[in-house]
Structure formats: structure tokens, C-alpha cells
Design brief:
Elements (H helix, E strand, L loop, with lengths): L6 H5 L11 E2 L12 H18 L8 E2 L10 H11 L1 H10 L11 H13 L5 H12 L7 H5 L3 H6 L4 H15 L13 H8 L7 H10 L12 H11 L7 H8 L6 H11 L7
Length: 277
Amino acid sequence: MSAVKHLDTMEFEQLPLVADLPVLVGPKAPLPVAPLGAAAQSDSAAAATKVAASGKAAAAPKVNLALPEGVPAYWAEACRQLMRRDRVLKRLIPQLSSQALLPRVQCRDEAFATLARSIVGQQIAVKSAKTLWNKFAKLPAEMTPELVLKLKVDDMRAAGLSARKVDYLVDLALHFTENRLRMDEWVEMLDEQIIAELMSIRGLSRWTAENFLIYYLARPNVLPLDDAGLIQGISLNYFSGDPVSRSDAREVAEAWKPWCTVATWYIWRSLEAQPVA
């Protein structure tokens, strides 16, 4: 992903590399032959009369979205509604539909690994974050909170982690091993309740919690206004690159509800075509 996106946004992705082009659905037909002279005028008038009588404009051809298997159940309907409401997404979604969100496996250790990876990648470049995570991930036999707590601090520091990130990872592991998180209740909990619970863990910001709601829990209506990539994408797609405030972004996103996650996702994907700053 472009450098304009935040670290965790890039690191959580599991995307296909090639986007299928949209396919127009409809029967094949021979090329039309334009009538001439009076015949042309007659045909044109007849068509206009037919449209006026029906009170409807000619329907636009439907677009076949190339969504991959495993997308959230709401994804296709969200795409259809967003394309009807938003001129930018009407263009972006058909182009990028094959790069839809594929939620992560729902289990305790995967949730821990997702949050641990976000901590490791904080405040460093995307490439460096990936390298650091790969080094750290080799230390435990499996990425579980119990095994991370057994690691030696010196070994974690030798892998490249700062003292602060080591503390954050230990606190995260303790939240899981001591059952401080209500994971079994997340399905019924509101987004804001989960965000508040995750922010009780040292080193986890609202931005990280919102990304967790998107990538791990696949919540449909998350709008991460603290995400630099989202703000940059709104700037480029809606304001010709002019600076965008949080209130500007929030106003644009009014048309996205209740599918802000899906809209945000394709705004992020659009940045991949932008030159790296």
C-alpha cells in the first residue's frame, strides 16, 4: 500500500494482487445501423415518446462485481448501495471489487496476534514493521499470549523491539491470559464498547482498536477518522488533493452509513494507484 497509509492498515491486508475488471452483463447483439433522414427522425421521436410514456429513463447496464469468496455477508449489498449514493465509489468499487475484505479467523490466539502485530508496527515504516514482526514472530514456537510471556526481555530487545514495545506486548499478553477481555461477548457488544475495552490495554490507541474492528471483527460501519490513509484518500478523490479536515471527512462519510467500513476499504485501495510520496 502507498506510504500515505498507516502501518497497521498495510500489515493486516490479505489481498489478491490482481483486480478483475468489471463485466457488463447483457446479451450480445450485432452492431446497430443508424437510420438516415426521415427514418432517423421517426425512430428518435418514437423512442422519446416511449420513454416519456413510461416515466422512466433507460436503465444503466448492471455491473458484475468480482468479489472474492469469503467476504462478509453484507459486502455485496453494501457495494450496491454505496455505488448508488456516491459518485466516487460508483467509479472505484467496480475497478477494485476483487480486493474485498477477507476477515481473519475468529479465535483467541488470532485476536492476540492481530493486536500484537499492530503494537510491533507502531511508528515505523511499513517495510521496517514487516521485517521487525518477522523477527519477533520467530521467537515463540507459536504466537500465543502464554508463550510470549515466557520470552526473555533480552531476546525481544535483540529482535529489535524497543523497551516500550516490550512492555506493551507483555501487557497485551496479560490481558489475554488473565481473561480481562470479554471476547465471548464481542459479537453482542457495540463498536464503542469494544473500542473502550481495547484502549484499556497499554499501547493500543483508538486507531488500532478501529482497525481491529475492521480487519478482525469485520464490523460494517467503522469510520477511522484518525487514519492518515483515509484522510488522504478523501482529499485525493473528493477534494482534488486539497487539505481535508476531520469534519470534511465526516461530512463525506454521511452518505456511506451504515457501510463506512466498505467505503473506507475502497478509499484505502484507491491509494495503491497513487505515487509514493
